Amino acid sequence: MHRLRRFLWTIVALIFLGLSWLWDHLHPIITFFIGLIPLEGLKEAVRRLMERLPPYPTLIVFLVPAIVHEAMKVVAFFLFRRHHWLAGVLVYFAADVIGVALVAFIFETCREKLLSIPWFAWCYAWFEKAHVWAHAQITPIKAYIHQALSEAGLIGRRAGIIAKLAALWRYERRRRRAAGAA
Q1: Distance between CA atoms of 147 and 179, rounded to whole angstroms?
Q2: Nearest residue to 59 via CA among 113, 15, 98
Q3: Cβ(168)–Cβ(145) under 8 Å?
Q4: Rg (Cα) of the chain, in Å, rounded?
Q5: What is d(CA 99, CA 91) in angstroms, rounded to the nearest whole number?
Q6: CA–CA distance, 18 with 67 (Å, rounded to integer)
Q7: Is 53 exposed, middle or buried (0-12, 13-18, 19+ CB in 10 A)?
Q8: Where are the domains of the chain?
């Protein structure tokens, strides 16, 4: 039971870190693309509007893109249900890109106001702690994978995923044999 619980928490940590990685790596790209949009006047007007709003109306404006994002995902799943695979995939990815872009833009614009709301600041601090926890969960797994790949001589080389998976499998087999012999 303990191993199953540990496995499930590791999966949760991987998902959480995957989403955090996407946020960290897509945010600069999306910011670049937002910079390409020739609507500087509109973006500046939104910034000025957000500066004038008190914290709670700012929170409502912050949540609108998230709601639109989720609604677009529902539309994507409806398209999947109707076997419109390409349209579903396009809507799904458009929802993610647009949702992340708008949420990132609004969050960066009004971070101080949003963090002035006590429960929002608490949620943000909890999110940061969860991020640290997820890293702590994954660090031993990363060390194990690094050890297996370095023993196979695949660190620093370009190797395919099949070669890396085979190296991990062989490493685990050797480790179990050694544990059984001891």
Answers
A1: 17
A2: 113
A3: yes
A4: 22
A5: 11
A6: 21
A7: middle
A8: 1-116, 120-182
User: Given pLDDT bands bounded at 50, 70 and 90, which one contains residue 182?
Assistant: low
DSSP notation for 62-123: HHHHHHHHHHHHHHHHHHHHTT-HHHHHHHHHHHHHHHHHHHHHHHHHHHHHHHTSHHHHHH
CA distance 6 to 107: 33
Three-class SS of residue 54? coil
Query: Do you know the residue count of the chain?
Result: 182
Q: How far apart are CA 17 and CA 29, in angstroms?
A: 18
> Per residue in 83-138, pLDDT tens?
998 999 999 888 877 777 778 778 888 889 999 999 999 999 998 888 888 888 87
